[in-house]
Amino acid sequence: MQLTTTFIAVFATAFAAFRGAEAQGFGVTCTNPVLSGSILTATCGNGHGGQTNSALDLNACVGLSGGNLVCQSNGDFLAHGCTGCSLIDVVISCDCPGFTFITLDECVTNDFGLLTCS
């Protein structure tokens, strides 16, 4: 019984560590990020040695608060007047109406190849 309990504990710890390694800021495990309007696309590692092309509407993850871009579920930042957004590496910058930026690794994760909101 002790061996079974130990095995389960080791397996659970290893799975949690593996899952935590995959569900991280997309900048670590994704390449070729492109921003088109509010749509972020990238090629992301799927945790099994493969790559997945993924897309995410950032309106689902990014909002505007006090004139600053923030991580916010269903934030719909473009509807709040943000324009001229661009992406450099993992940083998105916009005119909202003042210039603001946010590091998307704070708001977007790679979950086994799929871009998701954090």
From TrEMBL:
What are the alphabetically sorted keywords of the record? Signal
- According to the entry, every stretch annotated as the Cyanovirin-N domain falls at 26-115
Q: Which N-terminal stretch is annotated as signal sequence?
A: 1-23
- Highest taxon in the source lineage: Eukaryota
Q: Which InterPro entries match?
A: Cyanovirin-N, Cyanovirin-N_sf
Protein name in UniProt: Cyanovirin-N domain-containing protein
Query: Lineage of the native species?
Result: Eukaryota, Fungi, Dikarya, Basidiomycota, Agaricomycotina
